[in-house]
Inverse folding.
């Protein structure tokens, strides 16, 4: 779940791309990159770490041009530490293409072999994004006859790419001399939103980004989400063309975007993330009431684990008629722990990030709400902190169902062993966490909550809860391979 943005403007885009990446920082903290297109030339800067530390003034000055794109990375293939895997990726032929990608390809072994054996293409990293770019380049090359490129040839290349590539991909590319191309996988697993505004002369300026908050902040109107399988081509002069390039497109957005990944002030595929989290809280409250009915405990306070659990916890408190309190103070200078690379860093960061205030815990039965429990890194530490702060009993509730299967579409949960819910009953997990009771949202409840009140999205990508993988052939052998080869 990286963050991507692409902009076609009538003025230099470097600052706008930078500002957009700052707004998408919650989607990736490993590395970042910006590329611009100025006439026939690309300019590119990539660096490890977060946006604020990555770019110097002289880097920004060199990023000239009115067309550009940017990326913040949360590695899901290859390594978070590998500088050469930072995005964007570049190929010199045909024309010169630069690409950024949010998602994860699942047929990387086949693509790697075909790109070498059939297409004679060299890959220099373990990144699946480099594969995606090379497939695009290869299919563009295969579709051109003369010197120049037209929109039908571009859309034809994306159609062939959809036939070859499996997994999830929301991608933005710059093609030298031709402008910006954006496309979304045929299941629309990862988000991509299109926005437009007009410059003072009435010329259209365009943005494509992972989340709608980028559009709002830049003064763009939200035109629509890019459809699953669709490709959008925008010329440097602001002409926009679009075409459905997939044979059987189907909208199945990732449930985890609504639960944790996206910012609450974004609207993805017509569903407000904030509203979805409030509704998750409503449904969770019903499920908590049912499960606590037979247990002799009077809950004194409901508390969120900041930040992502706040909207759900507020609703739980309101629906159950229990006081809402913030018992954990969050250090605003520590990033999101779940998307940090390596368990040791994640564990240490939870303690640096959150601290319990004893006044809210002493002698109380506390109901702690988090949006999700994945490895249990956060919840383990939190329960310990709550007890150390004097809590009489700790009830833990998760607004997402138990995560029991690896995520292969763009969230780095490659191994079943590391998932605290894998192979354990609720009681066993509660014991692992040290909680007195543990309540999980049901899969049915999660679906009902996220998709309520609209009929545009009728199914969610929820493989990490159910084991039903919707894109590509995901079998036991594949999951074993991911487990062996991917760092977590
Ligand atoms: O069970 P775990 O493996 O610990 O993963 C789940 C936790 O990680 C996330 O928080 P994070 O600190 O990343 O971000 P937040 O501030 O947005 O809640 C999420 O909100 C849970 O708190
Ligand atoms: N989270 C993502 O979207 C990551 C994109 C790509 N798979 C990478 O590892 O760089
Ligand atoms: Mg959290």
């Amino acid at each position: 779940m990286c963050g991507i943005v692409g902009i076609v403007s009538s003025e230099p885009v470097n600052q706008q791309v930078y500002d957009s990446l700052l707004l998408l920082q919650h989607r990736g903290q490993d590395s970042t990159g910006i590329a611009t297109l100025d006439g026939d030339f690309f300019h590119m800067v990539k660096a490890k770490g977060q946006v604020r530390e990555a770019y110097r003034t002289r880097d920004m000055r060199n990023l000239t041009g009115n067309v550009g794109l940017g990326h913040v990375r949360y590695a899901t293939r290859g390594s978070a530490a590998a500088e050469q895997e930072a995005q964007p990726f570049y190929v010199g032929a045909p024309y010169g293409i630069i690409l950024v990608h949010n998602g994860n390809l699942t047929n990387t072994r086949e693509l790697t072999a075909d790109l070498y054996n059939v297409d004679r293409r060299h890959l220099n990293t373990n990144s699946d994004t480099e594969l995606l770019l090379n497939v695009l380049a290869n299919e563009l090359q295969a579709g051109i006859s003369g010197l120049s490129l037209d929109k039908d040839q571009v859309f034809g290349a994306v159609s062939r790419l959809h036939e070859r590539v499996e997994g999830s991909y929301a991608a933005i590319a710059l093609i030298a001399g031709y402008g910006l191309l954006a496309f979304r996988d045929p299941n629309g697993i990862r988000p991509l939103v299109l926005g437009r505004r007009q410059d003072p002369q009435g010329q259209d300026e365009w943005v494509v980004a992972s989340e709608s908050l980028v559009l709002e902040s830049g003064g763009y109107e939200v035109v629509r989400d890019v459809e699953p399988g669709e490709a959008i081509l925008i010329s440097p002069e602001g002409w926009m063309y679009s075409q459905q390039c997939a044979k059987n497109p189907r909208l199945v957005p990732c449930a985890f975007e609504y639960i944790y990944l996206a910012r609450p002030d974004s609207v993805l595929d017509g569903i407000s993330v904030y509203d979805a989290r409030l509704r998750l809280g409503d449904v969770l409250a019903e499920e908590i009431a049912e499960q606590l009915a037979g247990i002799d405990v009077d809950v004194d306070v409901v508390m969120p684990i900041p930040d992502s659990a706040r909207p759900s916890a507020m609703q739980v408190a309101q629906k159950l008629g229990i006081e809402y309190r913030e018992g954990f103070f969050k250090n605003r200078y520590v990033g999101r722990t779940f998307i940090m690379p390596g368990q040791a860093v994640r564990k240490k960061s939870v303690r640096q990030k959150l601290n319990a205030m004893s006044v809210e815990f002493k002698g109380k039965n506390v109901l702690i709400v988090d949006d999700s429990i994945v490895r249990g890194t956060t919840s383990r530490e939190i329960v310990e902190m709550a007890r150390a702060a004097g809590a009489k009993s700790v009830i833990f509730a998760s607004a997402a169902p138990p995560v029991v299967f690896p995520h292969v579409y763009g969230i780095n949960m490659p191994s079943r062993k590391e998932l605290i819910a894998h192979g354990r009953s609720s009681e066993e997990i509660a014991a692992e966490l040290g909680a007195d009771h543990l309540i999980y949202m049901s899969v049915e409840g999660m679906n009902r909550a996220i998709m309520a009140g609209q009929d545009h999205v009728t199914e969610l990508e929820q493989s990490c809860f159910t084991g039903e993988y919707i894109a590509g052939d995901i079998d036991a052998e594949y999951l074993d391979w991911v487990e062996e080869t991917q760092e977590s």
Remarks:
- The two ends are 14 Å apart (CA to CA).
- The first helix runs from residue 14 to 23.
